[in-house]
Structure formats: C-alpha cells, structure tokens
C-alpha cells in the first residue's frame, strides 16, 4: 500500500514531519491607572506566570467576544477591584518573547471607582512616574515606562 504525501504549490512533496509547535499569540488589554498625585498603579506577577515576579501594569487577555475596553474593565474588576468608568487608547505594542508573541493594547484609565489593590494576592502599589524605571518590568512594558516618563518630563 503506497502513501501519497501532500503536494505543495511548487509540486514538491510536503513533509509529514511535525513542525515545531506554533508560537502562542495573545492580545492583552493593559491599564495605565494614574491617581490624583500622579502615581501609577502596578502589580507584581505571580511566580507561576509568564514573566514571573516582574512588575506590570494590570490587565489581561482579551477573550473571544470582547473588545479591548470590555476586557480591560473585566480584568481590572477581577484583578484590582476597580470599576473602569472611562479609558482611552494610549499605545499598542507588539513583542515577541520567543515562546509567546504578545500584542499589548494599552489604555489610560481616566476615570474609575474603588481603590485599586491586588485582589489575587499579588503585591501592588502606587509608584511615582519618576520611579517606574527602578522596577523590573517585562521587556514588552519598557515602551510604556519610557513614554510615561517622557510625558512627565523625567
């Protein structure tokens, strides 16, 4: 019994060997939350998470059927205990970690109710913009820190 291999457009047989696993691609809604003192709210990632123990701007994966604003509102309610009343697009970042490709859709949260805190047991704090560069953020977050500090004149 003979087996036919699929044929590529060039009429060359396509190998049946397994290709390396496709890289994971994730769309993430990220919130930059600023208080009246000009401080930014950040959280520390858990030890079992991708980019473990690094500080981040809160947010999370955009789920099927959600837009970025909806995902951000859901994530900030679950993770930080606030209700987003208004947010606006700030920037978008594409970053390839090798094992994961992320698209960060960053929104500045311009109005919210509640006091942000780490609801999932993660450390969290308000940090002056001038001190953000002293924290260990994932590489994909560097442009956010740079932009915030440039806008603040730091």
From TrEMBL:
<feature type="domain" description="Nudix hydrolase">
    <location>
        <begin position="24"/>
        <end position="152"/>
    </location>
</feature>
<keyword id="KW-0227">DNA damage</keyword>
<dbReference type="InterPro" id="IPR003561">
    <property type="entry name" value="Mutator_MutT"/>
</dbReference>
<dbReference type="InterPro" id="IPR020476">
    <property type="entry name" value="Nudix_hydrolase"/>
</dbReference>
<dbReference type="InterPro" id="IPR029119">
    <property type="entry name" value="MutY_C"/>
</dbReference>
<dbReference type="InterPro" id="IPR020084">
    <property type="entry name" value="NUDIX_hydrolase_CS"/>
</dbReference>
<keyword id="KW-0515">Mutator protein</keyword>
<comment type="similarity">
    <text>Belongs to the Nudix hydrolase family.</text>
</comment>
<protein>
    <recommendedName>
        <fullName>8-oxo-dGTP diphosphatase</fullName>
        <ecNumber>3.6.1.55</ecNumber>
    </recommendedName>
</protein>
<dbReference type="InterPro" id="IPR000086">
    <property type="entry name" value="NUDIX_hydrolase_dom"/>
</dbReference>
<keyword id="KW-0235">DNA replication</keyword>
<dbReference type="InterPro" id="IPR047127">
    <property type="entry name" value="MutT-like"/>
</dbReference>
<keyword id="KW-0378">Hydrolase</keyword>
<dbReference type="InterPro" id="IPR015797">
    <property type="entry name" value="NUDIX_hydrolase-like_dom_sf"/>
</dbReference>
<dbReference type="GO" id="GO:0035539">
    <property type="term" value="F:8-oxo-7,8-dihydrodeoxyguanosine triphosphate pyrophosphatase activity"/>
</dbReference>
<keyword id="KW-0460">Magnesium</keyword>
<keyword id="KW-0479">Metal-binding</keyword>
<dbReference type="Pfam" id="PF14815">
    <property type="entry name" value="NUDIX_4"/>
</dbReference>
<keyword id="KW-0234">DNA repair</keyword>
